[in-house]
């Protein structure tokens, strides 16, 4: 039997509210397990973020962790030496939240002020820049969901409006 995944097309909201919503849904899932797997489709105004470490490790623990960890300068999705999609994952209490930021038709000049993802000597691109035409999120989303369904052997359905409205009201978003 295929798994059911709810797709919530939230639209454009602040980064903080998107994070608040993601955390709330992960909490619901962790609390009683009644929440189906959910994809949040969110767009937000440009924002600079930094990683956070929620636990301080002793020198021995950190050395042990570093000896087991590997990194790659090619994390994400690349077109030649230009990153088009960043990928992130977070795990807590047996629940994982994943995210990716696909550059569709955004203003790439924001990346001129930072070292994107801490990777020097690489660029950033978008679908619009690579295809030399405007490529909107609305155009990309159905293809992304079809691919997601195929790769993860699941059925995607729209997040029920009544349920979404109730959650947004609870969070005051």
TrEMBL record:
- BP GO annotations: protein lipoylation
The Gene Ontology terms for molecular function here are:
lipoyl(octanoyl) transferase activity
Which catalytic residues are annotated?
Answer: 117
The superkingdom of the source organism is Eukaryota
Swiss-Prot/TrEMBL keywords: Acyltransferase, Transferase
Pathway where this protein functions: Protein modification; protein lipoylation via endogenous pathway; protein N(6)-(lipoyl)lysine from octanoyl-[acyl-carrier-protein]: step 1/2
Enzyme Commission code: 2.3.1.181
InterPro entries (UniProt xref): aa-tRNA-synth_II/BPL/LPL, BPL_LPL_catalytic, Octanoyltransferase
Give the positions of the site Lowers pKa of active site Cys: 83
BPL/LPL catalytic domain location is: 1-156
Enzyme superclass (EC): transferase
Family assignment from sequence similarity = Belongs to the LipB family.
Q: What is this protein called?
A: lipoyl(octanoyl) transferase
Q: What lineage is on file?
A: Eukaryota, Metazoa, Ecdysozoa, Arthropoda, Hexapoda
């Amino acid at each position: 039997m295929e798994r059911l995944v709810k797709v919530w097309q939230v639209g454009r909201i602040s980064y903080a509210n998107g994070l608040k919503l993601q955390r709330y849904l992960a909490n619901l899932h962790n609390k009683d397990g009644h929440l189906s797997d959910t994809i949040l489709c969110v767009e937000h105004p440009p924002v600079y973020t930094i990683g956070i470490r929620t636990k301080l490790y002793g020198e021995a623990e950190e050395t042990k962790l570093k000896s087991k960890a590997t990194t790659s300068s090619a994390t994400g999705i690349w077109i030649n030496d230009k990153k088009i999609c960043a990928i992130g994952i977070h795990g807590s209490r047996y629940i994982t939240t994943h995210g990716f930021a696909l550059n569709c038709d955004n203003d790439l000049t924001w990346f001129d002020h930072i070292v994107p993802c801490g990777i020097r000597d690489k660029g950033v691109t978008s679908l619009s820049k690579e295809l030399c035409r405007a490529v909107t999120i609305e155009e990309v989303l159905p293809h992304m969901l079809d691919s997601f369904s195929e790769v993860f052997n699941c059925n995607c359905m729209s997040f029920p409006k009544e349920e979404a409205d109730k959650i947004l009201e609870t969070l005051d978003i």
